[in-house]
Write a structure and sequence with these properties.
With 521 residues, the chain is mainly α. It folds into two domains: 8-366, no CATH class; 372-514, no CATH class. The chain has 23 helices and five strands. The protein has a five-stranded mixed sheet with strand order 2-1-3-5-4. Helix 1 (8-25) packs parallel to helix 5 and helix 4 runs antiparallel to helix 5. The radius of gyration is 26 Å and the shape is globular. The N and C termini lie far apart (56 Å). Mean pLDDT is 90; it is low at 509-521.
């Protein structure tokens, strides 16, 4: 079915779909807190901006460019410095992406395809979870597909304004994540393919009919928008440090860094089988001369392929999800052609199955409360004792009285702190296992502490799988996979002063044999 001009009905449908997606993503928002360690970095930068440098941390260039924490800072300034306000930035970005999905489906295909694709993305557990985390990925996914949609319309229409818009959106995408230049690379690959196809009519003619100049204009715009961040990083930590970090997780490792089995694990775990089945059916329709379908399949496959080149982080696959939802909607839309006389049933029945299956995963996710670190900070704020801590970065967003972070002390300094206080609290979560020397120090001195409170850490499942094959979770050392689903806790211990000096005298020598060197990652 070919697209028809937009009408008032489309705007009503778009508003309804965005409202539905927003309701899911903002449902019981106050029950959400920061759990992923990167969330703490972005929220602390937002606090730094909202308080004009009095609190929080400056931009953490090693994590991502500055757009997302800047938006958090704006939200904090307007709505108050709260964890769920930071998460609301991602929720709004995820909601907007559903609207973008409708716009692509409606502009390139038809109203039924647009409605189905938007509903599939709105209810996809995979996308929903990342829309309820204060991470860059929901914003990146929306800007990524908005930029590609603008590029495609620019290539189809030849109008410069679409190239300009594509350049602006790509620049924003690039300022969200370091690989935000990918729309340029993908469109360049698409153009190269079109030139090769046209070369049978002559290479000169193929070049003449390809809009290279306006495409280069869009590239210049994107580079200009990214240049301030590039210069800021170059003159502080050095951009080569960022590149080395990224390469250390990808091209300098044995490739593929992530195998297809891991990708399949993610897809089948957080997307419904019905959605994947109809997406495959939609991909098969690209054999027909349907350029939009081929473009969507090209982008989706490219993003899956790109995920193979980097360590296995579930969030890297998120930009493929709108493509999967669009392909599934296209696959369902062609069913009436196979079943003449049953058009409504042929579309409504499979679409309902996909939605129902999506919701079986999505609705339980909405019931998860992720406030363990907030609860720990609230418990500690009324205490007068000094606090030794080693927790994920997100905890430090909450604490009102600065604790002593253990990894920043030498072993000798930790012993001195312990001996200098009659009463002291120790607070740790599983991240402490990333520091073997700290773990050894704790094990040697644990008899000095009494467990006072334990808080179960509940987080969205993708947060447990960071940089390793999730199928090997139970076999991996705690230094690699510290957080385990269902058994991760924040433990609050109180120092027991009895026999402290004697125990320190007996245990200090073997543990401090490292010369008191600092504990580093």
């Amino acid at each position: 079915m070919k697209p028809t001009p937009w009408t008032t009905k489309d705007w009503y449908l778009l508003a309804a779909l965005i409202s539905f997606a927003g309701l899911l993503r903002c449902w019981n928002l106050e029950s959400l807190g920061l759990t992923h360690f990167d969330e703490g970095s972005y929220a602390m930068t937002g606090k730094w901006l909202a308080t004009f440098g009095r609190e929080g941390w400056t931009y953490q260039s090693g994590h991502a460019p500055g757009l997302f924490p800047t938006l958090i800072g704006c939200f904090f300034f307007l709505f108050g410095i709260r964890d769920y306000v930071a998460i609301a930035v991602a929720a709004m970005a995820g909601t907007t992406t559903v609207g973008i999905c409708y716009w692509i489906g409606r502009t390139w295909f038809s109203r039924p395809v647009a409605v189905m694709a938007a509903l599939f993305l709105a209810t996809a557990e995979y996308h929903l979870m990342f829309s309820r985390l204060a991470l860059t990925d929901a914003l990146f996914t929306g800007l990524f597909w908005a930029a590609l949609a603008a590029y495609f319309l620019a290539l189809e229409s030849g109008k410069k304004r679409w190239f300009i818009l594509a350049g602006v959106l790509t620049g924003l995408c690039w300022n969200t994540k370091y690989h935000g230049f990918l729309p340029i690379i993908l469109v360049a690959g698409w153009l190269a393919t079109q030139i090769i196809i046209k070369t049978k009519e002559g290479f000169g003619k193929a070049l003449a009919t390809t809009p290279l100049r306006p495409f280069l204009l869009s590239v210049v715009i994107a580079v200009a928008l990214y240049a301030p961040w590039f210069l800021a990083v170059q003159f502080t930590v050095g951009y080569d440090q960022i590149l080395q970090h990224q390469l250390g997780h990808s091209l300098t490792r044995n490739l593929p860094a992530t195998d297809l089995g891991v990708i399949w694990f993610y897809l089948r775990k957080w997307l419904s089988p019905a959605l994947l089945l109809f997406a495959c059916f939609g991909a098969a329709t690209c054999m027909k001369p349907a350029r939009p379908t081929r473009f969507i399949l090209y982008v989706t496959v490219a993003m899956v392929g790109a995920a193979l080149l980097y360590l296995s982080f579930p969030r890297l696959l998120l930009p493929a999800l709108p493509g999967i939802c669009l392909l599934a909607a296209v696959g369902i839309s062609v069913l009436p052609q196979k079943l003449p006389g049953w058009q409504m049933v042929a579309q409504a029945a499979p679409a309902t199955i996909v939605l129902a299956w999506n919701l079986t995963g999505a609705l339980p996710s909405l019931a998860i409360e992720t406030t363990a670190y907030r609860e720990a900070a609230n418990y500690l704020k009324v205490r007068d004792e000094p606090i030794l801590s080693q927790l994920s970065k997100n905890f430090y967003f909450y604490e009102q009285h600065k604790s002593i972070e253990m990894r920043r002390q030498t072993i000798a300094e930790l012993d001195s702190i312990l001996a200098a206080h009659d009463s002291l609290l120790l607070v740790v979560d599983p991240i402490v296992h990333r520091f073997p020397e700290l773990t050894a120090w704790l094990e040697a001195r644990m008899s000095m502490f009494r467990l006072e409170k334990a808080l179960d850490i509940r987080m969205y499942e993708p947060n447990y799988f960071q940089g390793f094959d999730p199928r090997q979770l139970t076999d991996l050392p705690r230094t690699t996979a510290p957080f385990t689903p269902g058994s991760s806790q924040i433990a609050i211990f109180i120092h027991d002063t009895s026999d402290t000096v004697e125990l320190l005298r007996k245990s200090a020598a073997p543990v401090a044999a490292d010369g008191g060197r600092r504990v580093r990652r």
